[in-house]
Amino acid sequence: MNEETDSLPYIPKSLGTVEVAKDSSTYHGELGQPINSEAAAIHELIKNCPPLDLNSIYAYLLLTQHFSETCVVARGEQGIDGFVSGYVPPNQPDVLFIWQVAVHSRARGQGLGRAMLNHLLQRPKLADIAHIETTIGPDNLASRGMFASLAREHNASLTEHAFFDCHLFGSSGHEEERLIRVKLPARHPDGRRVDNSEAAHASAAGTAS
Ligand SMILES: CC(C)(COP(=O)(O)OP(=O)(O)OC[C@H]1O[C@@H](n2cnc3c(N)ncnc32)[C@H](O)[C@@H]1OP(=O)(O)O)[C@@H](O)C(=O)NCCC(=O)NCCS
User: Fold this and answer.
1) Taking the C-alpha atoms of 153, 1, 54 and 106 in order, what is their torsion angle to the nearest 10 degrees?
2) Which ranges of the chain have pLDDT less than 70?
3) Ligand 1 mutation pick, 146, 149, 158, 180, max ligand atoms within 8 A of CB
4) 42 in a domain, yes or no?
5) What is the CATH number of the domain that holds 117?
6) pTM here?
7) For the chain, how many structural domains are there in total?
8) Could you tell me which of 124, 76, 128 has the C-alpha nearest to residue 103?
9) Whether residue 100 has its Cβ less than 6 Å from ligand 1
10) C-alpha to C-alpha distance for 71 and 61, rounded to whole angstroms
11) Most distant CA pair in the chain: distance in Å?
């Protein structure tokens, strides 16, 4: 991976020790693994969530069929309120790459986007994930805000790297996509994820693994 970091001015490399309340989501729907019968509705959700690229229904079928363990759907009273697609890159078993995060306009501002990411981090099968990565276009302030918020919540460091230059998108006019990497909190011996400040405290007290 390209380790040359050139952070944008509005995302500090280290987000310090700001305390943010855990479980602050006020969303009341159910979060879980998506199933293939939800692929068409997920496609519809993404269609209504610019600036996300709309992939084919077939792509969402593959995600729900083969990658459901690294994807999340939020099911509310009015239908699907949110979706996160992700996967573990074949040569990076400790990385969870987040592809798309979408929250329906009716469910925004309730902490759902961040709750879906935290939901993934709590899955036992993803216990060995040490970093979350995603790519973000230069103007996607909502996505930047969400990943910065996740990093703050866990007292985690966040770095930004050049990744997919715009020329890689051919003549489509697509802007560059920069790689955001959040280093996740250490795991407590009991399997819980603790935030980095708690891990440091436990280590100082001689109780961390
Ligand atoms: C980005 C998106 C998923 C956020 O969903 P959400 O459920 O409203 O986000 P949350 O309520 O969990 O907010 C999490 C953090 O992101 C911040 N955030 C959310 N929307 C924001 C916006 N428009 N501008 C700046 N920050 C924003 C919140 O302030 C919050 O930070 P805080 O905890 O420090 O207050 C949603 O706006 C969306 O679907 N947008 C369109 C698709 C998209 O851009 N997806 C991201 C690219 S993968």
Assistant:
1) 0
2) 1-23, 187-209
3) 146
4) no
5) 3.40.630.30
6) 0.84
7) 1
8) 76
9) yes
10) 12
11) 56
